[in-house]
Amino acid sequence: MCVMQDMRIRYSDTTSFDGLSRNGIFSYPFKNFGRLDNVSKMVCYAAALALKDAGDSYSSDNKKDMGIIGTNTDGSLESDIDYFKDYLVSGRKLSRGNLFIYTLPTSPLAEAAIHFGLQGPLFYMTSGHETLPLVIRTAEDMLLLKESQSVVAGINNKDEAMYFVFKKNPIPESPVLCDISKAMSVIEKEISLLEMAEEFLMMQKGKC
Predict the structure, then answer these.
(1) DSSP string, 112-131
(2) At what angle do helices 180-187 and 131-144 cross, to 10 degrees?
(3) Which residues, at least 6 apart from 6, have a Cβ–Cβ distance to it below 8 Å?
(4) In this structure, what DSSP letter does residue 105 have?
(5) Are 151 and 143 in contact (CB under 8 A)?
(6) How confident is the model over 40-86, as pLDDT tens digits?
(7) Which end of the chain is more exposed for a tag (fewer CB within 10 A), N or C?
(8) Alpha carbon 87 to chain centroid distance?
(9) 69, 151 in Cβ contact below 8 A?
């Protein structure tokens, strides 16, 4: 969901959204998108929607002073299993490179950073429980310490993801939903990502 634009997009499978083609999500073609694992595709989609919602443009020719931080509940477990099964099923003695890449939990964030031209810090974080508030606090610290002028930060679960764009000094007239403290009042509630998105949508409409 693009909250600022009140645009709802349903993630239906690993390659497309209902009602919006891949070309409608990314500003320019995503090189080798088909080889990405499922988590990477979802993280890249979510980051693209967050940038679109924030009115942040990007292109293949420009780099951005922007970091990216993400978390999830399973790390790279799904890709780890696929990588291991490939040995058993295919009887391989050497690894398959395109499977090995995604056995690192930082790979989805790295794929996003490459496509969107993000040159700031990149972190994958995990602490077991309630990692999203930790991720957002870390993004806030990065801005306060001037490690980056803006940060894309968020979380993905098995079949859903939510990413935000935080900026130290938003450009006048650019869309801004709220400050981090107000965002944290929603993020720290024990609610689903969909419920969280609905609360931000209500906030955007001035109903809370």
Answers:
(1) HHHHHTB-S-EEE---SS-H
(2) 170
(3) 201, 204, 205
(4) T
(5) yes
(6) 988 999 999 999 888 899 999 999 999 999 999 888 888 899 889 98
(7) C
(8) 30
(9) yes
